[in-house]
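Appendix B. Chain record.
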Amino acid sequence: MAKLTFVGGIHPYDGKELSKDKPIKEILPKGELVYPLSQHIGAPANPIVAKGDRVLVGQKIAEAGGFVSAPVYASVSGTVKAIEPRRVVTGDSIMSIIVENDGLYEDVGFYPVAPIDKLTKEEILDAVKEAGIVGMGGAGFPTHVKLSPKEPENIEYVIANCAECEPYLTSDYRRMLEEPEKVIEGLKIILKLFDKAQGILAIEDNKPDCIKLFRQLTKDETRISVQALKTKYPQGGERTLIYATTGRKINSSMLPADVGCVVNNVDTIVAVYNAVVQGKPLLERIVTVTGDAIENPRNYKVHLGMSYNELLEVAGGFKGTPEKVICGGPMMGFGIFDLNVPITKTSTALLALTKDEVSAMEPGPCINCGRCVEVCPGRVIPSRLADMAEHFDEEGFLANDGMECCECGCCSYICPAKRPLTQQIKSMRKIQLAKKKKN
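Structure tokens predicted for this chain:
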């Protein structure tokens, strides 16, 4: 049988062997914690504490600023030092709540809403909303909004994104191996919201142990199947994942719900389980610390608000001076210049490399080889779009489907002329999205 996949894509060195075989290590922060009020797509959260207040683990410190928003919770006990702008990984200064950790980790007490079989759909959605859960694969879209499509009766597939196609990242892999029951139970909770839906655990075939484990654990589940996907980047992208598993296509103007699908990352699904079964809001996440410049590459369970500096210290620090430090993976992550920034709901990895190969590249003229077209999962012509972006040809950019680019980086990776195609296209897309938002 042909392996499930999509047209295009690349096979970069994955670097997963650095961290994939070590169990997740839980760590406790020591210093102050910083909680940005914008850790999600949508309106910032509004603080409901003041300087000098004592807070407990699991206490809400900021409430959602609208429907498309998410509350923020303290992940430690301590005292609110300030509410002020602090820099985040993107370089922006975001209004944040700063809590001085007292090291006691006293919590508010966590209690499930009700037995799962007695919960209504509304109660499940309220629990997810109240827990402050957002897309933890990096997008940060509030999960309760994603789970509230206009026509829930038309949802036919709930897809658990277990692909983890980004090189070097292994947090989802370790989560699946160490807590498979939570993944399955979390998926079953989401399926309760959609009466006609089938659950799909979509796993790349470079994780045969996960595929075997989940097939064994779901052999008696009539509404859940495991699908093995061909290992290829960007297999875990929402559009490519939906096409690989269902054969359905979406474009930039559509949502997965438009083709009867809902897609959630592994960590997001576990967060749903924690919220509904344990009554715990989103307080922590798994972060991969890896790269050939890291002393002890590994996956860590980290309290939100902890600084990357402190996390790096736990991982043994750098082996020498890295040329490149990235937040996230090498394909869709972004370089950071300061590690004194907080880990947030959308943090996935800290990647440090001894060599910055991209900076050493000297871009040349396009040789019209067509390789960027071959690998593009969006089926556009990246070289042409990059030219239009470079010359600010907005009309041509839109006419040639520039907004269909998913910014995966495949074209830049494969280009023999080393042109920064993705970066140029991304810049123009930002301009167009800003104009659309303004109008």
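Further analysis of this model is presented in Appendix C.
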